[in-house]
Specification:
alpha/beta, Rossmann fold, 2 domains, five-stranded parallel beta sheet, 6 helices, 17% strand, binds adenosine-5'-triphosphate, binds magnesium ion
């Protein structure tokens, strides 16, 4: 399939021209291996979903984790109650987890009272999964009010049971840090014992895209050129001048 530039939503390497997304998150892998719960926040359309969904695919393919990117977005609609929001979220998660290899898919979601459904589902999945779960919860700050507080409290409540009985590592992905969205939900934003998410290890943001590390290549420009002493690798090409004949040179492009 011919590739094109993505201008709407997550990039897919089979369909879109892409810059390597994981170089922007050099520190995430260690947090996951340390079984951390952490926050990744960055502005709108900065590549959060693309980067974390790529990482999830890679972690699962490597065979050490069951990893997937799931979204909280459907829970942000005005559904009238915490229980209804949880049901919508779990239904949406099922559609994403169906894409995992069969042996890594979660068991049917366990029925649980409102305010416990997300925690019960994650607990049952962690127990059944042959590998530790590393889950990336996108649009985490799209939830509001009691739904947001309830979901965060359920994550905190299961935290001590990881990795056998709850996901080993969870990333909350959104535009804001968790303290800021708790403030919006009407809380104090403090991370004291009353906070529903005082288990956060780290708040990260995405690095800017950077050029690929330069590596020496055999450079034989046409027509034959010889370089003057290089001022800097990035100006190498500008430093060429014509000559009558020379050896191919090593330079940086
Ligand atoms: N690795 C990449 N290479 C090239 N372009 C990218 C890459 N990652 C993201 N983009 C560009 O950024 C756009 C948004 O990507 P993505 O949906 O991953 O960002 P986001 O931060 O999750 O956005 P939102 O805040 O709206 O959820 C893509 O449509 C694409 O144009
Ligand atoms: Mg996104």
């Amino acid at each position: 399939m011919a590739r094109r530039f993505s201008v709407s939503g997550e990039c897919n390497p089979e369909r879109h021209y892409m810059l390597p997304p994981l170089r922007r998150l050099p520190m995430v892998r260690k947090l996951i291996d340390d079984k951390a719960y952490f926050v990744l926040h960055a502005p709108r359309q900065s590549g959060k979903t693309t980067a974390m969904s790529t990482l999830a695919g890679q972690l699962t393919a490597e065979g050490r984790y069951t990893s997937v990117l799931l979204s909280h977005e459907v829970g942000s609609a005005d559904l009238g109650s915490v229980g209804a929001a949880e049901e919508a979220i779990l239904d949406d998660w099922r559609a994403c987890t169906d894409l995992l290899p069969a042996e890594l898919q979660p068991p049917p979601w366990r029925s649980a009272p409102p305010g416990r459904q997300i925690g019960a589902a994650l607990g049952a999945w962690a127990k059944a999964s042959p590998r530790p779960l590393a889950l990336f919860l996108d649009e985490a700050d799209s939830l509001a009010g009691p739904v947001l507080v309830s979901v965060l409290r359920q994550l905190r409540s299961g935290f001590g049971l990881r990795p056998q009985h709850f996901p080993a590592s969870i990333a909350l992905i959104g535009m804001r840090d968790v303290r800021d969205y708790l403030m919006q939900a009407g809380g104090s934003g403090r991370t004291g014992s009353a906070s529903p998410f005082n288990i956060k290890d780290e708040s990260l943001t995405l690095r800017n895209f950077t050029p690929a590390p330069r590596r020496p290549v055999d450079c034989q420009p046409e027509p034959c050129l010889v370089s003057r002493p290089m001022i800097s690798p990035s100006r190498c090409v500008l430093a060429f001048r014509r000559c009558d004949g020379c050896e191919p040179r090593r330079c940086f492009r």
